[in-house]
């Protein structure tokens, strides 16, 4: 797996826990959705953990755990399956402040979409990373100077810029 | 002409009757071109697989067809300037075979571009503030509108500012670019629906409430394709300031819950059908209520900014009727026919709306050569403030012509083979490309349109028949709108043979209905005979003032079915 953040391939500080693995005492780790409730119950307030969820998850299923979670990874079963984009928006609307990660075979050209919906990082399989190097992700990130929508991070909003220009 | 022609950029549209890009729009579109150029390069280098490249090329209007690529250029809300029309003509000559095809969704298709040329074509379009963004793919498609927008006497409000507002909002939407399936929005602001809003994924109808406030009736889940549906009302009166929030709520519900397991069931119409409109409305309302609407607080200002571009042109003040027009009609019967059939009422006294038919007898519906496009551009500059429209019936509209100028205009059009006086008549056929171009086709459709058109080549007979919508699709995807044709024709394949299924009673307007099947399929050769029998029967049965569809509604489908059965028994083998 390769991890992209701010247009660069970075080392992943997080470890995905297999379901049969015991919950560690320290380190950053990611559990699957069925184990979330148990993890919240048994882990102390200082534990750093996240969850990976299918893109069909109802946000309400995560609400109770949100304040405890440092990372939510949303699985993209196929790159053209856009449900994860809406789920990301809903989690940001629910005031999730931690790292939001898209995990799957996303292609570089979808990077601005992911950022606009509130994702921070993208996790892709190695074979894809071999074909689509850092350069392609960075240039995708910078392909547009602004967007027509009001997104979360990165590009400025054309609407805002127009309003500013009209006021000045 | 090089791909990039800075001269063309400096020449303004004169006067302003439609939206003009500002620096942000221009930057956005040219960044899009650069991005696509890069995508083509990466596809050729292998960085992108064909599967990965596909959605991105589609979102730039590039299809793989039967024989070649096809590039679909957006003509947002059907409005074009003379300058843009000339550019379309130039592109057709330089990179295609000297013609283009105007489609039912206010797009223009080039049938023979090369993949390597498409970035240059897009750059050339960007010079004149055009693009091919989201004319295909599983995203929000080019937003269409009434082609008589701004000039129709029955209008509450020009729908184009709304459509432009939505064009911008939907362009490269970060959340809604990977929907379960394509998503089509149409807007009308008039008492009569000329935009077929009830057969779109979302139809918007501009309405006025009791207090005189403007808002939108929002209809969802209409569509044609293999399972046709008439849209249902999801919002009765959505105030303008809530429009985007409301649409985002619908799109979010669709993006999350629309089916993705089967592409034939992935349209929002199926979601609405399976869940029921009440459940969908509840879900949309819940989503809308949960949204942070402060993000949309300044939409109204933006709307006003856009609306200002669509100011009416500087009309002369004229008498309501033109004496010279009356005299000209008396003098030339051919002109009189044109004036009676292709010229419509305009909201301004002394002006008229002219429909230029792209359906010459025996021609390919919707095709125009580069020369014809240039004639149309010239005509619009001489007689109509340099503005043109494209209708979903695949015709071109000159929206502001002085009645006094109609005769001169007609002569000019006639000389270019553009004066066929058949707007709305039986030979004004909507047809998809069918087997001649399309890889999905199961039968030919263009040759069928040509045969019907030739069968009714007697124009006086056409006028006697009156308004009649014939619509033809080359497979069940229904690109030719056959479901909403008063006479619909669907080309299928049965045991290796083309077989045409005829439907009657379709209607794309506010009184929308889906056509009913007439009987077993017929052969290509029989189609004109069947249409002729149906028309003759209608002529025999009609009452004063009834159009084909009215008679069909009054006397019922069964009677029409009977006729054909009887014809069949007579040995006509239909
Ligand atoms: C290569 C050419 C084309 C292909 C492969 C194609 C493909 C399709 C498909 C698969 C559908 C059905 C979608 C669904 O129901 O989910 C469809 C619908 C449609 N297409 Fe095309 N099409 C082509 C050309 C055209 C042209 C030339 C026009 C206009 C003249 C057009 C206008 C439409 C319209 C209006 C629909 C309406 C059905 C709906 O949206 O419910 N298409 N097309
Ligand atoms: S209706 Fe069928 S044949 Fe005609 S253009 Fe659409 S997909 Fe092709």
UniProtKB/TrEMBL annotation, chain A:
InterPro entries hit by this protein: UCP030820 (IPR008318)
Taxonomy, superkingdom: Bacteria
Protein name as annotated: DUF934 domain-containing protein
Automatic annotation (TrEMBL), chain B:
A GO term, aspect molecular function: oxidoreductase activity
Domain Nitrite/Sulfite reductase ferredoxin-like residue range list: 69-127, 364-415
Gene3D superfamilies the UniProt entry points to: Sulfite Reductase Hemoprotein, domain 1, Sulfite Reductase Hemoprotein,Domain 2
Xref: InterPro entries: NIR_SIR_4Fe-4S (IPR051329), NiRdtase/SiRdtase_haem-b_fer (IPR005117), Nit/Sulf_reduc_fer-like_dom_sf (IPR036136), NO2/SO3_Rdtase_4Fe4S_dom (IPR006067), NO2/SO3_Rdtase_4Fe4S_sf (IPR045854)
Pfam families: NIR_SIR, NIR_SIR_ferr
Signal sequence range: none
Annotated SUPFAM superfamilies: Nitrite and sulphite reductase 4Fe-4S domain-like, Nitrite/Sulfite reductase N-terminal domain-like
Keywords of this entry: 4Fe-4S, Heme, Iron, Iron-sulfur, Metal-binding, Oxidoreductase
Ranges where the Nitrite/sulphite reductase 4Fe-4S domain occurs: 136-288, 427-565
Entry protein name: Nitrite/sulfite reductase
Organism: Methylocystis hirsuta
């Amino acid at each position: 797996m390769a991890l992209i953040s701010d247009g660069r391939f970075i080392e992943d500080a997080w470890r995905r826990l297999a379901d049969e693995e015991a919950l560690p005492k320290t380190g950053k780790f990611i559990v699957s959705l069925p184990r979330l409730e148990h993890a919240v119950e048994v882990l102390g307030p200082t534990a750093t953990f996240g969850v990976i969820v299918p893109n069909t998850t109802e946000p309400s299923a995560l609400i109770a755990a949100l304040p405890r979670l440092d990372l939510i990874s949303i699985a993209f079963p196929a790159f053209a399956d856009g449900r994860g984009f809406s789920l990301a928006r809903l989690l940001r609307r629910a005031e999730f402040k931690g790292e939001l990660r898209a995990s799957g075979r996303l292609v570089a050209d979808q990077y601005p979409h992911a950022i606009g919906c509130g994702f921070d990082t993208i996790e892709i399989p190695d074979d894809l990373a071999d074909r689509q190097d850092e350069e392609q992700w960075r240039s995708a990130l910078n392909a547009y100077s602004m967007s027509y929508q009001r997104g979360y991070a990165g590009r400025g909003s054309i609407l805002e810029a127009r309003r500013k220009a009209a006021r000045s | 002409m090089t791909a990039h022609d800075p001269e063309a950029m400096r020449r303004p549209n004169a006067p302003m009757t439609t939206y003009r890009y500002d620096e942000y729009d221009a930057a956005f579109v040219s960044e899009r071109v650069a991005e696509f150029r890069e995508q083509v390069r990466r596809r050729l280098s292998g960085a992108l697989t064909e599967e990965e490249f596909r959605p991105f090329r589609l979102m730039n209007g590039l299809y793989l067809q039967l024989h070649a690529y096809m590039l679909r250029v957006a003509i947002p809300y059907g409005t074009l300037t003379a300058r843009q029309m000339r550019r379309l003509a130039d592109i057709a000559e330089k990179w295609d075979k000297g013609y283009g095809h105007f489609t039912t969704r206010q797009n223009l298709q080039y049938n023979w571009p090369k993949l390597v040329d498409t970035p240059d074509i897009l750059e050339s379009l960007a010079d004149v503030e055009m693009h091919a963004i989201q004319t295909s793919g599983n995203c929000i498609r080019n937003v269409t509108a009434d082609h008589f927008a701004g000039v129709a006497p029955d209008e509450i409000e020009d729908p184009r500012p709304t459509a432009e507002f939505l064009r911008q909002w939907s362009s490269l939407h970060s959340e809604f670019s990977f929907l379960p399936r394509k998503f089509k929005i149409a807007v009308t602001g008039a008492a009569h629906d000329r935009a077929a809003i009830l057969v779109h994924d979302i139809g918007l109808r501009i309405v006025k409430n009791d207090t005189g406030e403007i808002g939108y009736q929002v209809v969802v889940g209409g569509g044609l394709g293999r399972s046709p549906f008439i849209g249902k009302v999801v919002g009765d009166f959505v105030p303008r300031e809530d429009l985007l929030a409301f649409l985002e709520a619908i799109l979010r519900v669709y993006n999350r819950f629309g089916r993705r397991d089967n592409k034939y069931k992935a349209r929002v119409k199926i979601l609405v059908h399976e869940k029921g409109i009440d459940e969908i409305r509840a879900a949309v309302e819940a989503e809308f209520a949960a949204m942070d609407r402060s993000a949309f607080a300044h939409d109204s200002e933006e709307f006003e900014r856009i609306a200002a571009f669509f100011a009416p042109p500087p009309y002369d003040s004229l008498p309501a009727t033109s004496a010279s027009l009356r005299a000209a009609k008396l003098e030339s019967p051919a002109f009189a026919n044109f004036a009676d059939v292709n010229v419509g009422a305009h909201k301004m006294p002394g002006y008229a709306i002219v429909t230029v038919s792209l359906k010459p007898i025996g021609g390919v519906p919707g095709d125009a050569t580069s020369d014809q496009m240039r004639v149309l551009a010239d005509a619009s500059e001489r007689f109509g403030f340099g503005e043109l429209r494209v209708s979903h019936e695949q015709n071109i509209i000159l929206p502001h012509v002085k009645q006094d100028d109609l005769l001169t205009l007609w002569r000019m059009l006639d000389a270019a083979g553009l004066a066929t006086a058949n707007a709305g008549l039986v030979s004004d056929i909507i047809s998809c490309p069918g087997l001649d171009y399309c890889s999905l086709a199961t039968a030919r459709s263009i040759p069928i349109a040509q045969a019907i058109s030739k069968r009714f080549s007697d124009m006086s007979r056409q006028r006697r028949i009156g308004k009649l919508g014939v619509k033809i699709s080359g497979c069940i995807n229904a690109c030719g709108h056959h479901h909403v044709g008063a006479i619909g024709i669907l080309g299928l394949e049965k045991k290796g043979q083309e077989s045409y299924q005829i439907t009657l009673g379709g209607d794309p307007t506010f009184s929308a209905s889906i056509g009913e099947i007439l009987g077993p399929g017929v052969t290509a050769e029989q189609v004109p005979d069947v249409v002729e029998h149906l028309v003759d029967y209608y002529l025999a049965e009609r009452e004063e003032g009834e159009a084909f569809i009215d008679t069909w509604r009054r006397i019922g489908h069964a009677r029409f079915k009977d006729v054909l059965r009887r014809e069949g028994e007579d040995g006509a083998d239909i």
